[in-house]
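Good day; I would like, with your permission, to put a structural problem before you. What I wish to show you is a protein chain and, alongside it, a tokenised description of its three-dimensional fold. Please examine both parts with care and let me know of anything in them that strikes you as inconsistent. Thank you for your consideration; the sequence and its tokens are set out here:

***
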Amino acid sequence: MIQKPIVPPPVIFIGCALIMLCLPNPYPVTINIVITYLIALASSFVGFFSVWQFYKNKANIHPIHLEKSKVFVVSGIYRFSRNPMYLSLTGLLVAWAFYLQSAVSFLGVFLFIYFITQWQIKPEEYWLEKKFGESYLAYKKKVRRWI
């Protein structure tokens, strides 16, 4: 049985970012800081446009109260990813790992992907399938979960 999410995605994001900061750095990674900032900027744009699409479509943006969802968004950036908000947070963690110059800190990125998939995305998908049925299943077949 899939349970309703209880931990908001920003809390998972901050937790993973803090874990990344605390990890040892035995394998330094050097990358041009401009690339790091470009990744952060691109991720921020993805996040902005995904929230904008929710706003435009009057969709429920609260990740814990899935039952309040009246619509699911399929336009704009949601034509390419079913979860661009989580994709943007993942991109920010990638930029953070590069900023920390630590290969080990990428463990935080993988933790985020795992936890957000298990604790947030799968319950969202379950709820959306129950609420919207065939239209959501058709969307799932057409658009990938991440990218």
Q: What stands out?
A: DSSP finds five helices and no strands in the chain. Helices lie at 9-22, 33-56, 84-100, 106-132, 134-142.
